[in-house]
Amino acid sequence: MNLNLGSSAMCSQDVEVRSSCRRACCVGSEHLRLVQSTEEIVATGKLAKTLKCANGSRWLRVSSLRIDGDRESPPVGWTDVYIDPAYTEVAEAAREQPDMLISSLIEARYGRCIAEIQQDVHGALISEEMAERLKVGKGTAALEIVRRYAISTRQAKRSRCRSAYTPRNVSRFRCG
After folding, report:
1. Could you tell me if 158 and 54 are in contact, meaning their C-beta atoms sit under 8 angstroms apart?
2. If you ran DSSP here, which 8-state letter would residue 169 be given?
3. Which SUPFAM superfamilies does UniProt cross-reference here (predicted)?
């Protein structure tokens, strides 16, 4: 399923989404994000294709467990967020504010608003490595959700991408 949420600007000052799936772009705000690692990476091969960026592009990856409620709750998903390395401060802010979406942190610190969101949803089986992180069995069915956020600036658009594995509470991601 490929869900394009339109090209309307999404700033807190001017929220407009031309889709009945508005809730889909705000789901992350319902969960706490527990940052597990941050790392500057070079996207090549499959990752570059997923991010729809040039082979060799540099990104800052913020990897997090997503949980409901308190820090003792079992994980509801794993998220890898790829952002422009210029937004390094956002990684620390994400640790300090686990209830804030990374897109909201970027907007607050840099004034960059989301201009477009593209979302792909695919069925996936949880790998052994991911199963340990998510406390589920290897091969558990999950949704792999890849969102590409484009921000508008006067000079150019720069994408951010979020890839998530969600074995629990999958119905929260349904539109309607």
Report:
1. no
2. -
3. Chorismate lyase-like (SSF64288)
Q: Using the 8-state DSSP alphabet, how is residue 138 labeled?
A: T
Domain boundaries in the chain? 2-173
DSSP state of 13: T
Which of 104, 88, 105, 92 has its CA nearest to residue 35? 92
What's the pTM? Answer: 0.73
Question: Any bridge partners for residue 116, and if so which?
Answer: 150
Distance, in Å, from the CA atom of 143 to the CA atom of 126, rounded to the nearest integer, reads 9
**CA dist 169 to 32, 66, 141, 142, 174, Å?**
14, 12, 12, 10, 10
- The candidate with the shortest Cα–Cα distance to 164, out of 144, 147, 149, is 144
Is residue 35 within 8 A of residue 94, CB to CB? The reply is: yes
Place domain 2-173 in its CATH homologous superfamily.
Chorismate lyase-like (3.40.1410.10)
User: What distance in Å separates the CA atoms of residue 148 and residue 81, rounded to the nearest whole number?
Assistant: 10
- Nearest CA-CA partner of 141 in 127, 121, 124, 164: 124
User: Would you give the DSSP letter of residue 74?
Assistant: P
